[in-house]
Amino acid sequence: MSRTTLKNYLLPRQSNSIAARAHHHSAWVAVAGVSRTETRDHPDGHYCLASVKYARQFATVFADNSVVISQDDKAKIGLGVPAVGRTFHTLQSVHEPVSVADHDFPLGNGQKLVPSVYLMIKPNELNDELRTGQLAIHVRHQWSLGTSSLTYMQDLESLVLDPQYNDVLKTNGEIRPVWVLLVDGGPDENPRHLKNIKTYCQLFRKFDLDYLTVRTHAPGQSKYNPVERGMATLSGKLAGITLPIDHFGSHLNTQGKVIDPELALQNFRYAGESLCDIWSRDLIFGKSVDARYVEELANPFENLEFEGDDSPECFVPWSWIENHCNLCQYSLDIKRCVNTSCCGPSRAKEAMDFLLLNNGFLPPVTKGRDRHFTSAIHLLEYYDHLKIPGYDSHCPSFDQTTYSRLCCSVCGKYFPTLTFMTNHKRTMHPASRGRLKGKSKEQNSRVLDDFSLLPSQQKQPLFDETYLRDCISDRD
After folding, report:
1. Measured between alpha carbons, how far is residue 47 from residues 32, 374, 375, 463 in Å?
2. Does residue 40 carry a pLDDT above 80?
3. Where is the C2H2-type domain (predicted)?
C-alpha cells in the first residue's frame, strides 16, 4: 500500500481540515494494546538493591576471579495457542487472511514449555557487561519435568562444561572461584528456603568455589534483575507465532488428558526445538543466543560428600551450613573455611583475605548517619574502626522486637527464620539456657555510628572525620 493511499484511508486528527475533506470513506483506525502493570512498591526495595550492589561491587574489584550470573524463568509458553498474549503495533492489509487459533478444544494441564534464561556477565567496570552479557536459554516441558532448584543446577553444570562459555565462566582453564547469582526470589530459587540452601551448598562444593553469594530483589521487583532486559527481547520474537501441540498426532483425549506419553514427549520435543530455533536466529546484546531443549533431569551432585553427615536423609548437614553459610532475608553467602582438610586451599587468596576482615563474609547492608546505604568495600576497609550492626538489622520490614527474636539468645547470631535459629541452638548450644543480656542489643544497633571507634582506638583517632564520612557515604 502506497503512502498516499494510506493517508487517504487514515482519518486525520482534525476532521474539519482541508486534508479531511479529501477522504471519501474515512474510518477510525486504532491499534489495541494491553496495559502495562506498574512495579509494586515494597518497603525493602532499596534495601535489596543495596544488597545486590554490595555483591556487584565485590565482583568488580576482583573481576579476574568473579562471574555474575543473572537467572530467571520466562513466562510459560502454551502449545496450540498464541505464544505471547501481548499486542504489537502492526498494520495489515484487508486482503490478507487472518489466522485465529481454534479455542474450542481443551489443551489440558501442563501442555506448556518453561524457558529458564541465564545471563552470564563478566564484571568489568570498563565496559557495559553489567547490562549485557552472554545469554543462554534452557527449555523444558511442564507436563512431567517442570523446573526446580535441581534443574537450575543442572543447567549451570551444562554451561560450565560448554567450551563456548570458557571465557566468561573460567580463568586459566578452571572455574572462576567467586560466583554471584542474581535470582528473582521464586520458590525454586529463594535463598531463604532450606531445600534451596542445601542445593546451593552442593553447587559450591561441586565447583570448588571460594565464595558464592545469592542475592534476590524484593517481592514484585524482579524487573531489576539484569536478565529481564534480554527476556523482553525474546517476547517480541514470538509475536504471531503458535507452537504446534500435535505435530506427530494428538496425545490428548477429549478431556485434555494425556493418553500416549511417548507421543507427548515427541510433540514436546518438536515444539521445544522449534522454539529454540526461533530464539537462536537473531543476536541479542550483539551476541548469539544459545537455546537448547532439555528433556531429561539429571542429578549433578550424586557423589558429593560433606563432613559431619551423620544422617543419610540430610545430604548437607546443618553443622556444615553453620560453619560455611551466612543466612539473611534476601541473600545467602557461602565461604570456603580456613580448615584445608574440609575445603582445601583457596584459589582467590587476595579476595578471601579481604573478606576475612569480616569473618569471611561480605558485610551487612548498612546505613550511615545520612540515611544512605554505605559501600561494601569501604566497610571492609574500615571494619576494625567501626561498630557494624548485625545482618538485616537495617531491613525496613523488621522492627526491633521482631529482629531481637531472630537473634540467638546465647551467641547473638542472626537467622532469617525461627526454624533456622532453633536448628542453630540445637546444634551449637545444646546445653545452654537463658537469653544473652545487653550484648545482642548493643551489637544490633539500628544505625551505624560512623565515628564510634573501638575502646582501644578512642584515644588517638586514626582517620579524619570529614574524610571518613566521604568514604562511608555512598550516594551513587
Report:
1. 38, 11, 13, 28
2. no
3. 406-434
Answer whether residue 463 shows pLDDT above 70. Answer: no
Looking at the structure, tell me whether residues 169 and 80 fall in a common domain: yes
Query: For the chain, what is the largest distance between any 2 Cα atoms, rounded to a whole number of angstroms?
Result: 93
> 127, 241 in Cβ contact below 8 A?
no
Identify the residue whose cell numbers are 573501638.
454
Segments in 207-347 forming alpha helices (H): 227-236, 261-280, 318-324, 340-343
Query: What amino acid is encoded at 300 in this protein?
Result: P
pLDDT, position 348: 93
* pTM for this predicted structure: 0.78
Q: Are 236 and 178 part of one and the same domain?
A: yes
Q: Are residues 81 and 157 in the same domain?
A: yes
pLDDT at 179 over 90: yes
Q: Does one domain contain both 82 and 231?
A: yes
Cα–Cα distance list, 340 to 66, 211, 421 (Å) = 22, 15, 28
Domain-embedded: residue 15 = yes
Smallest CA-to-CA distance from 80 within 256, 232, 236, 259 is with 256
From the CA atom positions of the chain, what is the Rg in Å? Answer: 27
Range of the domain at 15: 1-30
26 lies in the same domain as 51: no
